[in-house]
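REQUEST FORM: STRUCTURE PREDICTION
Request ID: SP-0412
Submitted by: Lab K.M.
Chain count: 1
Length (residues): 433
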Amino acid sequence: MNPVARSAVAAPADPVGARPSSRLEIDGRLFNPYSKDFIRSPWDAWDRLVRDYPVCWHKDLQMWVCSSHDACSEMLKDTRFSTNYKNWEHAPAPKPEADKNHFEKAIDAGLFAVEVREHLRLRKLTMPAFSKPVMMKIDAKIRDLIVTCFDEIGSPATFDAFEMIAEKLPVRSIARMVGVPTDMENFFHDFAVNVVTATRINLPLKRREQAIQDTLPGFQYFLDLIRQRRAAPHPGDDFVGSLISASDNGDRLDDYSIVSVIQAVIVAGSDTATDLHTYALQGLLKNPQQFALLKQQPELMENAIIELLRYGAFGKTPQFRFAAQDAEFWGQPIKKGQSILLNLTAAWVDPQKWPNPRQLDITRKMDGNIVFGAGAHFCIGTYLVRVQGGLMIQEFARRFPNAELLNGDGEVDYDYQHHNARRINKLMIKTHL
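STATUS: Completed
RESULT:
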C-alpha cells in the first residue's frame, strides 16, 4: 500500500484528542508506555497505533510516534531521520573539544553520530573484530559462561529465570567479549547500566547527566586497556586486539573510535539480551509444542531467536530518531529537530506484516523483519544476542527437559520503572526434577 495513502486514513470513530487536519495526534489515553496496564498488556494500544495512527504526534510525549511495520522499516532507511541526538531540538549546546569528557568524545566518534562516509569507514574497519575466528573464540567463552551459570542454578524445585539467567548472562558475556577480568564484572555491570541510561532522551536531564558522570571510570578503564595493548608487541587476537590492529591501507581506528564500538556493543548486546532470556523462556514454555519442535529440529534455532524476540515484543520506547531537516513522512509534517519514537516492537506485531502476530511460530518466514533494525544501523550486537540466546535455550532444555512456568504464568512481574523495556524481573520456573 502507498504509505501516504495509508497515513491519510479517515479519522477513527473515537479520535484521541483534537486532531488538526494537517496531522494525526494522540495522547496518553491511547498510548502511555509508562503505565502499568500497558506494560502488562500493550496489545490493544499497539493495534490501534498500527491500524489508525501509524505515524502520529503524541501531545503528552511531545514527539512523533512511528508504529506500523512499513513506516518503521522506511524510517530506518530514510537519511532525513538521524540517529545522532545532536540533531534533536533539545540537545545540549555543543562544547569546545577541550571541555568534552570521555563519554562525549566516544559518542562523537561512534556509529550513531558520524556522517555517512565516516560511518562506512568505521563499519569497514570494525569488520575484523566480528570475523569468524574472533567470534568462535567468543562462542567458546560464552558457552563456558552459560554452563557455569546453570551450574550455579543447580537442581532446585523452582527458580527465578530473571535472577539466575537474564540478570547474569548478558553483561558477563559482553565482559568476556571485551576482555574484562572476572573480578571486575560488578564494575563492568555498573558501567554497562550507565552507558545505556546516559543515551536515553526520554529520561530526565539530571538522571542522564549523572549516568554520564558514572560512565567515566569505565571509559578510562578501556582507554587505558587500549593504550596498554598498543604498547605491547602484539595487541592480541581477541575482540579488542582485532579492533586495534584493523587496518585499511594504513587507516586505523583511534582510541575513541574503539571505545565507541565497545559502547555500541554494550548498548546493543546487554539490554536486548537481558529481555531475550526471559521472554524466550516465557514464550517457549507457554507454547510447549513449539519448544518440542525446536528440540527436534535444532537447526531452527536462529529463526526461533528472531521469532521469539518478535513474539515477545518487549519494548516500550525502543529507539529514537531525530529529523535532520523538515520532512513530510507518511503524509505527516515533521519539523527539523523533532524527535521520533521508533516504536519497533509495535511494528513486530503489525498484522499487515505478520499474520496471527500473537502466535509463536518458529518456522515463520522472517523475510523483511526489522527485529534487529535495518539499513546502515543494523544492530551491531546481533551475533552476540543470537549466540547467547541459542546456547542458553539449549542448556536450559538439557538441564530442565520437563520445566514449566510456575502456576501456569511463572508468577511474572515487571520492572515498571525501566527506561525502555517491558522488562520482566520475575519469571518463576518449575523444574520437575
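NOTES: The first strand starts at residue 25 and ends at 26.
Reviewed by: T.R.
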